[in-house]
Write a structure and sequence with these properties.
The protein is mainly beta. It folds into five domains: 386 residues, Distorted Sandwich (Beta-galactosidase, Chain A, domain 5), CATH 2.70.98; 149 residues, no CATH class; 103 residues, no CATH class; 137 residues, no CATH class; 54 residues, no CATH class. 5% of the residues lie in helices and 34% in strands. It has an eight-stranded antiparallel beta sheet with strand order 7-10-11-12-27-16-15-14. Strands 3, 4, 5, 6, 13, 25 and 26 form a seven-stranded antiparallel beta sheet that branches. A five-stranded antiparallel beta sheet has the order 42-65-44-45-46, with no helix packed on it. A hairpin with a 2-residue loop joins strand 28 and strand 29. It is elongated, with a radius of gyration of 40 Å.
């Protein structure tokens, strides 16, 4: 044990030291290394797909045999994504002055296989020449990509967080919106670079000759939301940094998509990949895969798979409002007239660009012309020679200061015939460098690293949180009244501060090997801006999509955001793209679903009980704060939830499922939320109260059930935000293993063993307990129940009010006294739960406490009464006189009346104003709770002395009064109650007579003298009962008669299909022998299980 502890501590120390060393090295000392290549799985909404930290999305069955194709909707049998590989290329000059097109790509579906079109570039020894992950951004013990919902995958320190106040953000999530900001339902993060790409003699970093490739480093995030509007979208964000010293002038970003539309989800299993096609829409920055007949491998309908650019690498240097967001500010508008040739004479003004800084200078055209240096080449522009802008060459060819304003694309039909040209920027604002018009437009050539709130949406009241994005952490920039990178709505966290160029190339091709992933020149040519090839190709096709060209100077960062999305049909795909664009335009700041509950399930005999935590009720939404509203419960016997009732949107697409149960806060928020989503209104519930356990008594033995418990919020009508529900993830991997979220459970109820006796309890109040409150013990988990003895005790307090002093319940405790020498306090001094609150369970039981109204003493008017009718009403209140207040004692009483004085004698009592003398009286008072007669004083205000009466003397104005004198908790004699008679309009009623009595009952709260003791017995086997239960052993269904609904689905066209026989009501340990009709033994089965499971399958 000591050695194990030493080794554990040493391992933890070593992990911290290694992490600290990585951090101390700094980002510039970290390089991509294939040894740190890990996998993750996106499954935060309806898309489930493996991904790798070299940028690859899809399956690598040679590396992970359990891999699978990207799947949608999650849990179904269709595969869509085989490989999705982002890549980035640039045109550079190598050391010999040769123009090279270097492309850095991930290592593909079959990494390290030289010459395989599905592999990235490798050398002869199989070593990577591709993008590779940097160490330090994941927990190397787990060997999974760091994800927000899996704390165990996080590194000890984050090497890219150089915050002096808290270096490395130890123990925190490195989120898109800042430290520990969990906006997405699932978010991944890793860093990669192209350090290993040493194929060409190009050295991008003059300070480090070992850095190869293009000198690029990528900060990569994937984000999924289960929000109904974007549940069919995976957002992939890439921040590409030029970590070298070479100023890149001509970069192109691409995406290679190799689909397998409609084939089985299992890797390396094909079935419907020969009729795939593709289309695009430049206006939407959207491309998508098609299927010729839209029928999958199993004959059922399949959907659309799209790729969208929400944010592309911008061009903050071309003088154009590329993304069209500056139309409301200054600047002229680009027209086709600008594309005509222009001639400058000597002495005319021209604009000269310094292509190192992209600064503009207005000069006069000299007689010898103007020389421009670009990419190491000199270009000379002479006076008197017509100049015309050449698209896509990244040079201002007509000397107006605008770069490639005539960029466009040729649209062609399926036969390759020209249709029309599309100009990307006609109608957009630009800067007139001759006049200065547009120079003050902050949304022309805006950037996300300039420290400027270009679009003016940074709010100092809400967003001035400092560089880590967290309030009150005291980090750099917090509360300084100025935008700081890392705060919301500025630079990196504000997507609108980028001048995007959009989709510029779409290339569908076959065979899929035409553009191998390792082929630099092929990929570069395949996404040349304006490459928009014919539509209508069907076959085993792949797609290339590109966005370029754009510059990336040394030390700068460019960002793009890609969407992987799906839809039932083209219209649904386009709608999902538009919803995703709206989320993007709102900086991904839509309402987030409450936290996902953690659920456990217990199966019983024809019943299943679910339990879940209350985390969802405590976690604040980043937009609406604490907005939790309720829980929904779903049940299905199918792993794709297909047997649940579907709720479709206005276009007929499945949107919701109907829950089997729903519970929401009793807060007046109920019914239909007024705003619809896709034509569907969200049901907020019926105010039936929150619970954390639910029993399905309709479950049937033998069936496999999947249950999900989801949490949802109440939305916000003024903000236009509908309610949001958390995800419930369930998917079957190709090897048959089941992956679920924390709120999804799989369970099969079965008959218990023969002789099974369930858990039970017995309880009682100990002597001297007097409470009117109720204690119930519920046996909620037969698996966890044990033999045990328990006590519930209480503490009280005395609260002085104007009417009197009232004892009230302060708290309660639960103690396990099974071991008298070592009692275990299960709950210590906890407040009494309010209505609807549920206490946690222990050892298989849960207690329910129901206290009296207001947790204090009051009169039980229903049970307090005279022995007969015709007597004046009575009043019982705590004594009150001057500053003296009587104790509202928690007791029941009986007041007896006699014909003559002398039945008892009152005692002396002085209330500080009056002394009441003793006298013989016709009254006796009994404390029924304490079973004794008590003392009292009398204030004789009416009629004959010593005879209790009312309203007879002095014109019937007064009632005699009795003052109860009793011992308090400290055994001191104090005044408690005052008893008197009240008036009545009924003239037939009178004061009590001889042999009359009044019984008074109080509501008594839990007080310190109240002790509830109970014992529990665990489930067990009763041998005598087992002998009687042997007659109930049987096999179902009868194998000679009929099939059963629980049997596996028959996937064959003919025949009986797979069988599943259940032997039920078996003893815990027995042998089953199966004979044929001839009496020959054909099979033997051993059953050895717990007493809860009497079934063998």
């Amino acid at each position: 044990m000591k050695n194990w502890l030493k080794w554990t501590l040493f391992s933890l120390w070593l992990c911290c030291v290694l992490s600290s060393l990585i951090y101390a090295q700094g980002m510039d000392q970290l390089h991509g290394d294939e040894a740190y290549a890990y996998r993750g799985i996106y499954e935060g909404n309806q898309i489930r797909v493996p991904f790798y930290n070299d940028g690859f999305i899809g399956n690598r069955p040679d590396v992970n045999p359990d891999d699978f194709k990207g799947n949608w909707p999650i849990g179904t049998t269709f595969g869509y994504i085989n490989q999705l590989a982002p890549f980035i290329g640039a045109e550079v000059l190598d050391v010999n002055g040769v123009v090279r097109h270097i492309v850095s790509e991930p290592n593909g579906m079959r990494p390290g296989n030289l010459g395989d079109a599905a592999s990235g570039d490798t050398d002869e020894l199989g070593r990577w020449r591709t993008l590779a992950p940097l160490p330090g951004f994941a927990n190397d013990e787990i060997q999974e990509i760091a994800m927000s919902h899996k704390r165990g995958t996080w590194p000890v320190l984050w090497p890219d967080q150089m915050d002096q106040d808290d270096p490395g953000w130890q123990g925190s999530w490195n989120g898109y919106f800042g430290r520990n900001q969990f906006n997405a339902d699932q978010e991944s993060y890793f860093v990669l670079d192209d350090y290993l790409n040493n194929e060409f003699l190009f050295y991008p970093d003059a300070a480090d000759s070992s850095r190869r490739g293009l000198g690029l480093r990528g900060y990569v995030r994937g984000m999924q939301w289960n929000n109904i509007l974007v549940e069919d979208v995976l957002f992939s964000l890439y921040d590409i940094e030029n970590a070298g010293t070479y100023n890149h002038d001509k970069i192109n970003f691409g995406m290679l998509s190799g689909p397998d539309i409609g084939s089985p989800v299992a890797a390396n299993v094909w079935g419907d990949s020969d009729d795939d096609g593709g289309e695009y829409d430049l206006d939407l920055d959207l491309g998508w895969h098609t299927d010729q007949d839209w029928i999958g491998f199993d004959g059922s309908q399949i959907g659309y798979h799209g790729l969208a650019f929400f944010e592309t690498p911008g061009s903050p240097y071309d003088g154009i409002d590329n993304d069209g967001d500056g139309m409301n500010s200054s600047g002229p508008i680009i027209s086709e007239a600008m594309f005509s040739p222009v001639t400058y004479n000597a002495g005319d003004n021209v604009v000269v660009i310094d292509y190192q800084t992209f600064s503009r200078t207005v000069v006069t055209m000299p007689a010898q012309g103007v020389d421009i240096l670009y990419l190491g080449k000199k270009y000379t522009f002479l006076p008197g020679v017509a100049l015309e802008e050449i698209p896509n060459n990244l040079i201002d060819d007509n000397l107006n200061g605008i770069i490639d304003e005539n960029n466009g694309s040729e649209l062609r039909d399926e036969n390759g015939q020209f249709i029309r040209s599309v100009w990307l920027y006609v109608g957009s604002k630009y800067i007139d460098y001759f006049t200065g018009d547009g120079l003050n437009n902050p949304l022309i050539d805006e950037r996300r690293d300039d420290g400027i709130d270009n679009d003016g949406d940074w709010d100092p009241q809400k967003d001035d949180t400092g560089a880590d994005g967290v309030e009150f952490s005291g980090d750099r920039g917090e509360g300084d009244g100025l935008p700081t990178d890392g705060e919301k709505h500025v630079d990196a966290t504000d997507i609108s501060e980028s001048d995007m160029i959009g989709l510029t190339a779409f290339n569908i091709f076959t065979p899929w090997t035409l553009y191998p992933l390792y082929g630099d020149e092929e990929l570069w040519e395949g996404i040349m801006p304006g490459f928009l090839n014919a539509r209508g190709q069907y076959g085993n096709t792949d797609i290339l999509m590109g966005s370029g060209y754009f510059p990336l100077p040394a030390g700068e960062i460019n960002r793009f955001s890609l969407g992987v999305l799906f839809g039932d049909d083209k219209d649904d795909l386009v709608r999902n793209k538009q919803w995703a664009n709206e989320a993007y335009d709102n900086n991904y700041e839509f309402a987030k679903a409450p936290a996902v509950p953690t659920v456990t399930a217990r199966a019983g005999n024809n019943r299943v009980t679910l339990y879940w935590d209350d985390l969802a009720e405590k976690v604040a939404d980043p937009v609406l704060g604490l907005d939790f509203e309720g829980y929904r419960i779903y049940r299905s016997t199918s792993d794709d939830w297909s047997d649940m009732r579907a709720i479709t949107d206005v276009w007929g697409s499945n949107t919701f499922r109907k829950p089997i149960a729903q519970f929401d806060l009793d807060n007046g928020v109920e019914g239909k939320f007024p705003l619809d989503v896709k034509g569907v209104y969200f049901d907020l519930g019926t105010d039936n109260g929150i619970v954390h356990t639910w029993t399905d008594s309709t479950a049937k033995n033998g069936f496999r059930y999947f249950y999900a418990v989801t949490s949802y919020d109440h939305g916000d009508l003024p903000s236009g935000l509908p309610p949001t529900e958390c995800s419930y993830i369930l998917s079957i991997r190709p090897d048959g293993t089941i992956s679920t979220g924390t709120n999804v459970v799989q369970v099969r109820p079965e008959a218990p063993s023969a002789g099974f006796v369930g858990p039970a309890y017995q309880g009682q109040w100990l002597e001297n307990s007097s409470t009117s409150g109720q204690v119930q013990v519920e046996m909620v988990d037969q698996f966890a129940a044990v033999d045990g003895d328990y006590n519930i005790t209480f503490e009280d307090e005395y609260v002085e009010r104007s009417q009197g002093v009232y004892p009230s319940t302060l708290n309660f405790s639960v103690v396990n006294g099974s071991d008298p020498l070592n009692p275990d306090t299960l709950m210590n001094r906890q407040p009494i739960p309010g209505e609807g609150e549920v206490l946690p369970s222990f050892n298989g039981f849960r207690i329910h406490l129901t206290n009296v109204p207001n947790n204090t003493v009051s009169i039980n008017t229903d049970s307090s009464q005279w022995n007969r009718e015709g007597i004046l009403p009575f009043n019982l209140n705590p004594f009150r006189s001057g500053t003296m207040r009587g104790l509202a004692k928690a007791s029941d009483y009986r007041i007896e009346f006699y014909e003559n004085a002398g039945a008892d004698t009152s005692v002396f009592f002085d209330d500080g104003r009056t002394g009441y003398t003793p006298m013989p009286v016709n009254v006796r008072i009994f404390n029924l709770t304490e079973n004794k007669q008590i003392d009292f004083a009398i204030r004789d205000r009416d009629g004959e002395a010593g005879i209790f009466s009312a309203f007879t003397g002095e014109a019937g104005r007064y009632s005699d009064e009795l003052y109860f004198l009793e011992n308090n908790a400290a055994d001191s004699l104090v005044v408690t109650w005052r008893f008197s008679l009240g008036r009545s309009t009924d003239t037939t009623v009178t004061a009590p007579r001889a042999e009359d009595y009044c019984k008074i009952v109080t509501h008594k709260p839990f007080l310190k003298h109240d002790v509830f003791q109970f014992s529990t017995t665990a489930a067990h086997l009763d041998k005598e009962k087992a002998n009687g239960d042997l007659d109930d052993i049987r096999v179902v269904p009868n194998p000679y008669i009929v099939a059963n609904a629980w049997e596996p689905e028959n996937t064959f066209e003919n025949g009986r299909g797979p069988r599943e026989l259940h032997f039920i009501n078996l003893p815990p340990k027995c042998t089953i022998r199966i004979y044929n009709v001839r009496g020959q033994l054909i099979a033997t089965m051993e059953h050895n299980d717990t007493i809860w499971n009497g079934t063998e399958i």
